[in-house]
Structures are given as structure tokens and as C-alpha cells.
Amino acid sequence: NSEGMQGGYRQTLIHISLSLVAGHSTATAPIRWSRTARTLATFSTALFGDETARLAATTLEGRPPARSAVPALFAPAAAVEVIRHLAQSLRPPGPAQGFPIGSKLLSIIDDGRLPGGIVSAPFDGEGVPTRRTVVVDHGRFAAMTHDCDSAAASTAKSTGNSRRVSFRESPRRMPSNFFLPPGSDDPADLMAEAARP
What we know:
The chain is an alpha+beta fold. About 25% of the residues lie in helices and about 20% in strands. It has a four-stranded antiparallel sheet with strand order 5-4-3-8, covered by helices on one side. The radius of gyration is 20 Å and the shape is globular.
């Protein structure tokens, strides 16, 4: 980088993608589903095919619900889309610390050193050591992720969230492993709770 830091590390990524067109007599739906992991052992191709087929069936069978306020339980794939949207919409300086984001059960973490994480690395695109940043803590905004540029503009410190998409591009602020930490409740119990009137 511009301060003379030079470093490197090795990583392997495995990507699998499946596209299909599901249909019945009155409708068709194109489905594309993909997964990325650090090791081949992480994948079950049979399970991946089953997940894709389930997604296709759900797409064909689903109907828009009537508008109302209801409890919602997100499947993992839907939760990924929700937090991806949140990650893309967060711009420095971000909400005030403690600003309510969602349920007190909701926490969101960005961890550049998550074991087995897709983008885990010892340092970011500017040579800053990566770290774990709690972005949402029990439903309230806790901290913004920063690269060197946004940190300087916000009188903060970089959280190691600068990424280089390729060596041809300048680094830019991006999330690393952005995820919801697992809770302790059984999924079946959560479904039962959501179904109660």
C-alpha cells in the first residue's frame, strides 16, 4: 500500500451453482441457486440439489399474503438477503449509536477473521488487520465498519473493512463475513411460536 506495507496469504474457494426452470401447467419460474465455501468437504451436492428443488417448489406455490403486521421467520437464504441489503445500505457515519434497528433478539456481526469464513483474511485491502465488529447488538446499532478513508472522515479508526476486488482496482469499504450469530432456540419451537395467534 501507500505506506509500504506488503503481505500475502493463500486461500481456496469452492463455488457451486445450479440453474433450473420449474413449472406446471399454468406457470414457470427460473431458479438459480449458488453456494460458496472454503473446502469441498463443506458441500453436500445432494443436499444442495434438494435445497434448489425446494426453492423452486416454494416459488411456484407461493402467493402474496394480505397486507398486515405479522411475526416473520426467515429461512437462512432469506435472512442472507436481508443482511446483505443492510450491509449495502449502511453508509458512514451511520445511525446514532443505540439507534433501534430491530428486535432485541437481533444481533449482526462483521468478522474478518471468522474461521472458515468466505472472505476471512489476516489483513484487508489496505493492510489493516481484520477484526470482529458488532454492528447491531440486541436490536440496536452498535458500530459502523470502516476503511481508512471513511474512518478519517468520521474521526474513527479503520475496522479492517477495505476490500480489493482485483489488483486492478483501488480498495473500497465493504463488509467481510457479515452474519447473524445463531440463537439458542430450536427452529421447530420458533415455527410454533410464530404460528400462535
